[in-house]
Amino acid sequence: MKPARSTFLALCFVIGLASRTSAQTVDQQTFNEKVYAVAPLGRFPSDPRAFSGLSPRDEHDVLACREVLMGLLKSLQTGGDALQYLAPDFARQFKSAADVLASVTAPETSLMAAGISGFDFDDERTGIQLRFFMLILSEGKLVVSEEAAVLRKTGSQWRVAGFE
To answer: Model pTM?
Structure first.
């Protein structure tokens, strides 16, 4: 009975140590995420009436376009399949995700964060221009870059059709 109890206590000790080490790793990751999180400090200036004329469909389309653009930017930074976010005609202009990244940022930069600063519908509501900003790490300094992306519906999906 005594060897079983000793084994049980040793096993509990090992499990406790392992979970404590795991918790410290998670806490360190959480710490890093909290320290480097971008915090909104105010609202973007906009006319309060700007959104009053949007239909639920318009709101859905703007949010869908935002998801596509943010997905593209994230995949450009992480090395994912960025071309999937592009309209076919636009995608044919690039050989790789690195070429897409080079079209919106300078060489040897890292995308750190991005956000939407405005949007406009085209006259037929078949395209949406999203104005966006990127927080970029370049040569050890943080730089803000503002760009615009035009998104068009390709089949049932919104895709980036160009940058302006």
So the answer is: 0.77
